[in-house]
Amino acid sequence: MASSERSVAEGSKLKSAQLLDLVKAHLATDAGKDLQQKIGYTYQINIAPKKIGIDEESFVVDLKNLKVYKGKCEGKPDATFSFADDDFMAVSSGSINPQMAFVRGKMKIKGSMSAAQKFTPDIFPKPSKL
Amino acid sequence: MALRDLVMGGSGCAVPGNDGSSSSNPLGGFADSILGSASKTQERLREMPGLTGSRQQNGPQFGPTGPLTSLPGSELDSGQGSQAQVPPEFLGRFQDGDAREFVDAWNQALDRQLPPPQLPGLPRHNEVALFREFESIYGQEPGTSNVPPVFDAPPQHVLSGFLRSFVDSSRTNAPFPAVRLPELGLSHADKSRIRDRSSIMGRHIFADRGDAFADSQVNALLQSLDIEGNLRTQGPLAGQLSEFEQLWKEGYAQSTPVQQRQIGHQPLVSLPDQWANDFQSQYGPQTAPSWVDEFHNQQDGDQWAQQFQQQQGQIAARARFSHGGMGNLNAMEPTHALVQTLSQNQDPKFQNSKFLQFVSKMSRGELIVDDNQVKPGVANQLSNSWADEFQQQHTALPETWAAEFTAGEHMHRGDTWAEDFGRTRHEAVSTSDDWVDEFSKLGVRDWADEFGDQVAKGAFGDESNSSWLESYDKFVEEQVKGEQRVPQSSRFVYQFADQNPYVGHPNPLKEGQDLFRRGLLSEAVLALEAEVLKNPDNSEGWRLLGITHAENDDDRQAIASMVKARDADPSNLEVLLALGVSHTNELEQQEALRYLRGWLQHHPKYGMLVPHDVVDRLNHAEVANLFNEAAQMAPEDGDVHTVLGVLYNLSRDYDKAIASFQTALQLKPRDYSLWNKLGATQANSARSADAIYAYQEALDLKPNYVRAWSNMGIGYANQGQYEESIRYYVRALAMNPKADNAWQYLRISLSCASRPDLLDACERRDLEALQKEYPL
Questions:
Q1: How many domains are there within chain A?
Q2: Residue B172 at interface with chain A, using a CB cutoff of 8 Å
Q3: Does A84 fall in a domain?
Q4: Do A126 and B745 touch (CB under 8 A)?
Q5: Coil, helix or strand for B376?
Q6: Fewer C-beta neighbours within 10 Å, C or N terminus of chain A?
Q7: How far A105 CA lies from chain B's nearest CA (Å)?
Q8: Which fold has domain B575-773?
């Protein structure tokens, strides 16, 4: 990641924000272009520290333009998700699949279901362990 | 009570113009108007055995004959395929004086200010509504009642016991025997009321057995009570509190202690059915713009009427929903639509799916989703208080799935009636959040519609369809088995292996060290567990156990062990560094910072750099500055550079982190964990190709370094080389089958590599099959 770029995790205590920083770097690689082709949707992700809806921070993962930024979506997202921090981490690491998260009520979806359907853990790079 | 009675037509909810029988109530009337099926209902009810006279029951004091409304759901019992037209005269009722009365009565009921009593466990707005209603029913002094108390009531226990056994028979599904009961002295009004209610109730509780069965059960009941099926009411219907009423109220009374007390010291002699009328005479008609009008205005397109008609194919099931309580309306409506859509899908996979069964069960109220737990519905346990049930649902449902979909920007039907209804309601009456609110959430149907449509159209593609199905199936299975995942709070609790051959070993620590050195990490874990079981205060045992877990790619266990090691020896530098690293891996910045600062603080050489004040929240830059000072003091100390590298990882200054690790590696080139740290940093900063090289160095130094194998897999996956990544994950898992992360990543790589055929092996954790396909 170019260090000059502002980190999306700046000032955030969310683990998810740190992960989204990885996504940001990831999208700049060839893998990003694959995702652009394969998915090409824009997602807004609202993440709450503990409970969905409370103290949420919004992030946008734009796979159309390969951007990740903090805040509300510029324009209309194809789908909006709400998570608690840990649940987002679980979904992005593949320890729970998005459908299961949804069924359990750990993930809320708004917007197009077909866009939501493409939101899978393979969008996310896996954090490598030191 | 409000909800239960609104739905079930407790006499407290009678509405002027209606006859006070069980089905006449605001909600029922409303539902009927929604469904546009009132006239049809009347016809059908006439056909029902034992209900022939029901239309004629209107008491003389209740004004014009209203349509016999019925429970939402029960009117759907029959008439399949008959596309009933919405009768214009019925809709007109919402505009004529009769409807106005209803509206006014309702508004009065909500607007009237009464001191709210404290009802434990109920939200305040509900208390108010409940209390008002209750007050209006029971609040009259005995002397002011215009009807004399009932003296000829039969012994309560006989009747209630008998009625209970009737209800119970729905559980066993056994035919209900007609029994000759002692003379109960029921009045005609009582009898007709029992007849009406038991007919309707019978339809509900025996919905799965078919109408004929329900009828025979009800007939047996009626026969026992000496009630003729075609009994016609001769006296005023309302005004007598029969035993049956009493029974109906019991469930409610039990649920709210306050109200029970009320019943206890207030004689139940009022005119429950007349409360609405009383309101009316007290306050006079009002011309407030009401939600009903609004509601009617929007009705022009007959949109939902049609929709409901479409759902008639599923009706038998629908009838049950009243047993799930009001709250389940929310869940069952959408699932209902979903069932229909899904059942139209001819794919046998769909048809046989547990998902479909699950959803149809939900639509019948057999399963309810409560606080994200699927539970058996209350369909078979009528004795449960419905009011309670509603409360549960009321709190649970907004949290659960689909509720979100009510929100505005829904493209499917942005202006659904439910939303408008909800909104209008809020404008009209500021006492929000009562049951009407629940109605507004009916918009959850939307997602089901959309989801169902898309499923039907195959928008998701076959694969994703099945993944949804699997999720539901799995979810249902889990719920049925009552499986609970390990709660979050136990994450720092060390999980010992169940079976440990090293327990009883004379020197498990030495054995563990030995195994660790030989690279047999999973064996070493067992030996070291035996050691710490034997000597729980042995810091070295815990430390090595933690290191082993970290190398075995299990950070949670690593943290749990290291916390124990630190408890035993709070100043062990290796332990503090390991904790810092593990927390960094878990993206837990504050914890990581605390341990890394602790490392410096306890270091004999650099400890004096760290101020001894207690800091609540550590600032990354300050900690990094301390370490940079340390690095200037001793540029030849590889450990300081290592910690700096970890610190820069925390702040995602990857360039600096890489530089620090490279410096450290110059000082300690044979430290395999340093090579891995360098690689991980490179991979996390989108330099996975470089990372592969670093990992290879680490593996050359320590071939059984599970973490590096696993990281290698991540490195390849990040570059889109999924086939390669699978090999490395499988290799890592062969060495430590307990590395959960690697299993998850493997699954993702398998699906990305278009090897869904191996997902099953992955799910079963069948390493043999995987190794055969992906040898390394």
A1: 1
A2: no
A3: yes
A4: yes
A5: strand
A6: N
A7: 5
A8: 1.25.40
Residue A118 lies in a domain: no
End-to-end C-alpha distance for chain B, whole angstroms: 67
**Host domain of residue A102:** 15-112
Q: Supply the pTM of this predicted model.
A: 0.52
Asked whether residue A73 is domain-assigned, the answer is yes
Residue B446 pLDDT > 80 = no
Contacts of B338 in chain A (CB under 8 A): none
- Cβ separation B718–A99 shorter than 8 A: no
Selection from B142, B141, B117, B139 nearest residue B130 by Cα: B117
- Decide whether B486-570 matches B575-773 in CATH topology: yes
Between B157 and B670, where is the model more confident? B670
Would you give the end-to-end CA distance of chain A in angstroms?
A: 18
- b/e per residue B146-174 (b: at least 16 CB within 10 A): eeeebeebbeeeebbebbeebbbbbeeee
Nearest to A114 among B404, B454, B718 (CB): B454
Assign residue A62 the CATH number of its domain: 3.30.1050.10
Residues of chain B positioned with their CB less than 8 A from the CB of A125:
684, 686, 714, 718
**CATH of B486-570 given 3.40.50.740, 3.90.170.10, 3.30.1490.20, 1.25.40.10:** 1.25.40.10
Contacts of B658 (CB under 8 A, 6+ apart): B645, B678, B681, B682, B685
In a domain, A50, yes or no: yes
Q: What is the mean pLDDT of chain A?
A: 86
pLDDT in tens, B702-727: 999 999 999 999 999 988 889 999 99
Beta carbons of B471 and A105 less than 8 Å apart: no
